[in-house]
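ingest -> validate -> predict -> emit
validate: passed (alphabet ok, no gaps, 454 aa)
predict: started
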Amino acid sequence: MAKKKVTIFKKILIANRGEIALRIIRTCKEMGIKTVAIYSTADAESLHVRFADEAVCIGPAPSNDSYLDIARVISAAEITNSDAIHPGYGFLSESAKFSKICEEHGIKFIGASPEMIDGMGDKASAKATMLAAGVPCVPGSEGLIENAGHAIKMAAEVKYPVMIKATAGGGGKGMRICWDDENLKVNLKSAMQEAKAAFGNDGMYMEKFIQEPRHIEIQIAGDKYGNACHMSERDCSIQRRHQKLVEETPSPFMTPKLRKRMGDAAVKAAKAVKYEGVGTVEFLVDKNRDFYFMEMNTRIQVEHTITEEVINFDLVKEQIKLAAGVEITGQGYEPKLHAIQCRINAEDPQHDFRPSPGKITNYHAPGGHGIRIDTHVYAGYTIPPNYDSMISKLITVAQTREEAITKMERALDEYIIEGIKTTIPFHQQLMKDSKFRAGDFTTKFMDDFEIKKY
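emit:
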C-alpha cells in the first residue's frame, strides 16, 4: 500500500493493557519495532508484560493512578526513549489532552490529532461537521438543549419518539428514549445528572429515535496526504445496554448497493475532517436500509479482528505505518469471506452479566482452521476487578455465514475457562438461536432474549 519511503518508529510504548496491548506487541515485533509495556501492580503477571521488550510499572491498580495518569505514561515513554505511543482502545485512546501532550513532548501519538479528537468526540459538533459534508445524519437538534421547555419545542419539530444524548457521552450513559412531553421532562433531568457525574459535562442534544435499527460501522483509513478508503462494514447490532457482545462481517443485512452508499459516505466523512489513521464511522440503519451517521471513533476498535480476517490485512500495522507518514492507495475493499467475533467476558450471564473476577484454574483454547483467539489470560492468571471484564475475543472465519456460525459453535464447545464465570454459555445459546442464525435481529435483540439455565 505504501508509495513513499518513510522512517518507521524504533520503539513504541503501548499505553494499554490486556489483549489489545499484546496484539500491538505482536505486530510491532513483526515490523522490527521494539516495544515497551506499561502495567499497574494488578497486571504484573499479564502476558503483555512478559512479551514486551521492556516493561514499566506505572502505579497501583486503579486506572486513575496508572493507565489514565498522563504524567506517568509520558514519564515511562521518556525514560525508555520511546519515539511513539500506541494507546490501543479505551483509556487514553481518545483523549485530546493526551494526544496534545505527546505532541508537545516530541512523541508520536499513534492516533488522531487533538483537534480531530475534540471535533469528533463532541457529538453535537461532529454531527454539524457531517451535515456540512453531506453525510446522512439522524434528524435532531442543531445545538444543545437549553432547558426542558426548549427540549419540548425541539421534540415537536423532530417528532416522537426522540432520543436525548449526552454530548460528551459514551457506553450508553446520559442516553434516554422519550415518548411524550412528560416522559421527556423526567428523562432529561436524570440524563443530565448521569452525564454530569460520568463525564463532568451535562450538555445534552436530541435526535429522532430510529425504530428497528441496525448498528453497522464502516472501517476507514486515512493518511496525511488527504487520501481515505473504507474496508467494508461490521454489524454490531447484538449488544446489551449499548455494549457490543457479537460482531460480524459482512452484515447479513447488507446489499452491494447499500455497501457502496455507506462506504462512500464513510470516506466522505473521513475526508471532511482530514482523518489520519485507522478508525470507524458508525451508522444506524433502519428497516428500509436508510442509514444515519452516529459517531466517528478515532482509534482502533475491539472488533477490528474480523475485518482483518476477511480482507487478510493487518490494521494495527496499517495504523502504525500511517502514523509514520505512509501514503495509502485510497481504494475500497469488499469481504470475500465471513467472520464472527464473540466477546468472552468474565461475567455471569445468569445474574445480569455480573462481573466475575478471580483466578482461572483451568484454561484450554479451541483450535483448528479458521479459529483466532486474542487474549492475555492463561491457567493460573488472576483477573483483577479493576478493569473492563472482556478477557478474550474468539473469532471464526469461513466461506459463508452459516459455516462461520457452525465453526463458532464448535469452538465455543472446546473453549474451557474454569474458576470464574464467563459469557461462553451465553454465546453457545446465541449461536443456536433461530433469529440470530437467520440474520433477523436489530439492536433490540437482547431485550427479548431469555437466557436459559445451565
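The longest strand covers residues 228-240.
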